[in-house]
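Chapter summary example.
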Amino acid sequence: MKMTLAEQPVWQVIFVPDSPTASLFFTLGLLWILYPPRSIIIKQIGHVIQALAVVTSVKYGVWAVSIIFAGWMQGGTQHWQDWMLIASHSAMAIEALIYVRFFGFRWAALVVAGLWTLLNDTMDYTYDIYPWLPASLYDHVDGVRNFTFGLTLVSILCAWLALRQAKRT
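The structure predicted for these 169 residues follows.
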């Protein structure tokens, strides 16, 4: 984020902290469950946040793990922190799919969450504010971009399928 603030317009900062934002959405989504609001409008906002929690947690959880492994496959060096990131981001994706059954969002909130996440991808790769990449992947940014957009679509589908399954049980 520091680099974005130094080199890009300040309005782009909202698109920078991808994994931390996913964790924030997840935390807020849990708070909406623990402390349900009375207002219909606030409930609807909460549903969008819950949908964002699932879509972005699955996406950035899988994305981070995939990028670390892809970096290694391209000759990047392994660091002990990579294993911590693999564990934490894998858990992030899994917990979102486990908790989806407790969230109250429906397809409309999921559409909003999906559109926001696709907008975020567009901003990342249009203005070069995408998340950190291993140096070994800088020659493959176009492939990373395509993978990222595809993963967003898969994450939306996973959220929809998990929600659908949760509502059946």
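To summarize the output: DSSP finds six helices and no strands in the chain.
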